[in-house]
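Escalated from tier 1: methionine sulfoxide holo job.
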Amino acid sequence: MAENLFIPDAATKAEKYQAVIPQIEALITGEPDLYANLANTSAALREAFGFFWVGFYLVKNEQLVLGPFQGPIACTRINFGKGVCGTAWKEAKTQLVPDVDAFPGHIACSSASRSEIVVPVFKGNKVAMVLDVDSDQLADFDETDQNYLEELMGILGKTL
Ligand code: SME
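Tier 2 regenerated the structure:
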C-alpha cells in the first residue's frame, strides 16, 4: 500500500483528479473494510484539494448517518429528501450547489459553508451513501468536480 499520496505540482484540477483517483483506487481495492476505505478516501481528497469539509453520510434505517470525514464536526443525521444530502439520496443524482443559501432546505452544519457538491454512491441500483464536499467559497465546484467525483464514487461503489 502506498504510504504517501502523490499530488502533482501546479496541476489543473482535472490533472489532479487524474493523478489522485488511481491512487485512491489502489488504496481501497482489495481492502474489505468499508470504514477504512471511506476514511482514506476522505483524507486523500482533503489532502489533494484542501476541501473545507469532505466526508460520507451512510443510509442506515431510513436516515443518512454521518460516517468518516475530514473537517469540522457536522450534523449526525439527515432525513430522506432533506438538505442537499437527503435530496441527492432521494433523487439518486449528484447535487451541484453553487450557493447553499439559494438551495431550499439546505442544512447548515457550518455557517462557513458557501457551496457544496453531493454525489451518491450506489450499491446495485440503490443509494448506499453519499459523498458530501463543502467549500467556504461560493461556486467552488463545477462539472469537472462532478465528473471525476462521480467516477471515483463509481469505483467505491464496486467495493460495496
Ligand atoms: N449541508 C448538508 C449537510 C451536511 S454538512 O454540509 C457536512 C446538507 O444540506 O445536506
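DSSP finds four helices and six strands in the chain.
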